[in-house]
Amino acid sequence: MSVIKVAILGFGTVGEGVYRTIQSHEEELASVLGKKVEVAAVLIRNKEKDRNINEDVLVTTDFKEILCLPQLDVVVEAIVGKEPPLTFLKKAIERGCHIITANKEMFAHHGKELLKLAQENKVSVGFEATVAGGIPVIQTLGQLLKINRVQQVQGILNGTSNFILTEMREKKQSFAQALLQAQKNGFAEADPTNDVEGFDAFYKTMILSRIAFGEEPNWQDVEREGITSVTRDLIDAAEKLGLRFKHVASINREGGQITGSVQPVLVGKEHPFYHVEGVENAVNVHSDIVGRITLQGPGAGMFPTASAIIEDLVYVCQNHYHDRSFKQMAAVPIEQKKGQISETWLVHGLTKTKINPLITWLDQASVDTFIIRAEKKDVVELANQQEDLVYFPFLGEYQSAIKLKPKALSAL
Ligand code: HSE
């Protein structure tokens, strides 16, 4: 049986997961591909560390040694940051290797360039692992929803943030305790700022946008906020009303325009994201033929990410380089809107003196935390008047939890 030789760049949580999965699933790989898959080399950073890698595998800190191997078919990249991974992958493509990456930051910035180079060199690029861990969302959008006109994609795309929000609510942990646990579990990035400040979800959103719409919004126009403004008190106040905080990325296409946001929001029990807990991710796709689809599953961790990569390994080896062209979509008409839509918000820190007649009061979660209905511009104006005021949008149709009587509300 002939052999497919693979190099793994990086031997952290993801790299090691891929190595172990290639060993544990060698029979399945051989039966699907008709060839044996072998890890020929592993690129590491620190030679001193103990690793459980077979002796016949080249373990090196020098990428050039890997490029010089007599046979090399696939390069799997599981490093962080834009460089040197980008340079390594370009060199691998030029050598005629298929590439697979889990590096969302690098791929959000340079994916187009890599895909073009791969097409010129007639090799394939797998990037399923860049978005939503083990959920096969890239293949679903790219291969299985080719004719549907996608209008909106919403997702919980950062496992670490969802894990922290869940731990803070369920186990009453502090933000720092929950983050430490996420790091111990191997969910968080080396620098967790990317997770908790929304950068990681932002990069994933831009990759999804390219697959769903063939293009991305202007990066500067995408509102990006992480979960650091969500305190335990806010989580508890929301829970009293049956609401949960989720960190949600959203991209919409209307007419020729793509808009996006990445921010903490509130959801009620009816929303498909309400029960997405811990390190789980979810992606909700709204398109014209099928309607709404929600995919849910583990968003980070060793084996969920290895699963995405190992499936990509089959995909690239079956040589689908011609399939990666982005779709061209007919324009989705813009709905006629009468003025600005009134939205539902959780506002915290609101004082009686700031009450605005343009706001409809729906519920009270704590002494200074309310659920209101208002246009965004009015909420922003309130926040401008009152520095310590924080506000979060509610996703979906709000069902009042306590049904405050108008009388009780007027007394606020
Ligand atoms: N740090 C990332 C997360 C890993 O928590 O979602 C998976 O991309």
List the helices and strands and how they pair.
Elements: E1 3-9, H1 13-24, H2 26-33, E2 36-43, E3 58-60, H3 63-67, E4 74-77, H4 85-94, E5 98-101, H5 104-120, E6 125-126, H6 137-144, E7 150-156, H7 159-170, H8 175-184, H9 193-196, H10 199-213, E8 223-224, H11 232-240, E9 244-254, E10 257-267, E11 280-287, E12 291-298, H12 302-317, E13 343-348, E14 360-366, E15 369-374, H13 376-385, E16 390-395, H14 406-410
Parallel strand pairs: 1-2, 1-4, 2-3, 4-5, 5-6, 8-10, 10-16
Antiparallel strand pairs: 7-9, 7-11, 9-10, 11-12, 13-15, 13-16, 14-15
Helix pairs in contact: 1-12, 4-5, 5-10, 7-8
The structure holds L-homoserine.
The site of L-homoserine (HSE) has 11 residues, from helix 7.
Order of helices and strands: EHHEEHEHEHEHEHHHHEHEEEEHEEEHEH
Multimeric status of the protein? single chain
Mean pLDDT: 91
Query: For the record, what CATH class of the largest domain applies?
Result: Alpha Beta
What composes the largest sheet? 10 strands, mixed
Q: What is the helix tally?
A: 14
